[in-house]
Q: What sequence folds into this?
């Protein structure tokens, strides 16, 4: 199955940023205002200050704070609750920003979201200081604002994120990596914070235990979809779209779902394992990477990944039918269907 990347890129541009209702735009502006407030610093003009300015101003899709706010619509609504949701959504996004800085340092990458990565632009020391500063502010404001239960949920998500990065590092260049191990890794890398975002929104708005559990599962499902979609886009030839060089994961020995599915057959293993062996020793040329991509497509890796994403999409759409009929259903359904397409 040959994927038409021109169609992918056209559709992805419509996804970035998401089409939001006017209320969502206003809500996210409030979240952003709290991010700016919570990250105020006294060392402007330093490299660390520049890192923080870059991180805070490079506003991405803000999917995680969207999930906090949308999950919060299934509970009690009041001005006080909304302000708490704005604040905690800001802290969730700050956690994500800190993790991006951390990823830049660990990956030693040169690109992030199509731009020069923070550590590449400002140096590792400034990036480490900025990441530490963000985490200290997150801890402070969680305590100051009394987010006790939400703080515990967020802390466990950060623990899972660290575990996911550690286990992924241990799996680098493993040709016998199982799909189960891959799923465990991406739960920590991505799905855990998506799940926590929904959980926190449910906690702060006082959702019933049943609704909270369904929202947690929805967040986890969306996280899996998000990461699998990102892994599929690693095969895109346009790094302006994916924000990094194509096949960057494969180059680094991170074998994602399209590759693992293609290796399920003996023929696929026979074709792909030599590339994986050379990748671990001397690296691959651009020509060899293109050949590898063709084998992944030939042996159904990309098609089966899409089938898996669509299976998660069906699960997410079913979960939405179990939730109370609130005005958050429509934007959540929109997000589900955007993640289920390119």
A:
């Amino acid at each position: 199955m040959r994927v038409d990347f021109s169609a992918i890129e056209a559709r992805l541009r419509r996804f970035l940023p998401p089409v939001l209702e006017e209320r969502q735009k206003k809500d996210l502006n409030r979240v952003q205002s709290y991010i700016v407030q919570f990250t105020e610093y006294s060392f402007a003009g330093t490299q660390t200050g520049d890192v923080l300015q870059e991180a805070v101003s490079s506003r991405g899709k803000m999917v995680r704070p969207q999930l906090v706010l949308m999950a919060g619509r299934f509970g009690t609504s009041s001005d006080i609750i909304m302000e708490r949701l704005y604040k905690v959504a800001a802290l969730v996004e700050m956690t994500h920003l800190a993790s991006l800085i951390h990823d830049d340092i660990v990956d030693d990458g040169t690109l992030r979201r199509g731009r020069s990565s923070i550590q590449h632009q400002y140096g590792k020391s400034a990036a480490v200081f900025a990441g530490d500063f963000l985490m200290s502010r997150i801890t402070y404001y969680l305590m100051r604002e009394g987010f006790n239960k939400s703080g515990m949920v967020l802390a466990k998500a950060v623990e899972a994120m660290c575990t996911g990065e550690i286990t992924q590092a241990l799996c680098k260049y493993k040709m016998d990596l199982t799909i189960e191990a891959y799923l465990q890794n991406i739960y920590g890398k991505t799905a855990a914070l998506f799940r926590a975002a929904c959980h926190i929104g449910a906690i702060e708005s006082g959702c019933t235990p049943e609704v909270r559990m369904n929202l947690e599962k929805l967040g986890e499902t969306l996280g899996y979809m998000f990461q699998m979609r990102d892994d599929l886009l690693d095969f895109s030839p346009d790094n302006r779209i994916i924000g990094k060089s194509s096949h960057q994961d494969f180059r680094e020995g991170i074998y994602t779902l399209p590759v693992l599915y293609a290796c399920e057959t003996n023929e696929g293993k026979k074709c792909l394992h030599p590339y994986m062996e050379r990748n671990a020793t001397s690296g691959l040329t651009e020509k060899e990477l293109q050949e590898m991509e063709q084998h992944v497509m030939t042996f159904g890796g990309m098609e089966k990944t899409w089938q898996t994403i669509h299976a998660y999409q069906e699960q997410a759409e079913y979960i939405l039918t179990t939730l109370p009929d609130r005005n958050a259903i429509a934007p959540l359904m929109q997000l589900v269907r955007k993640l289920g397409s390119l």
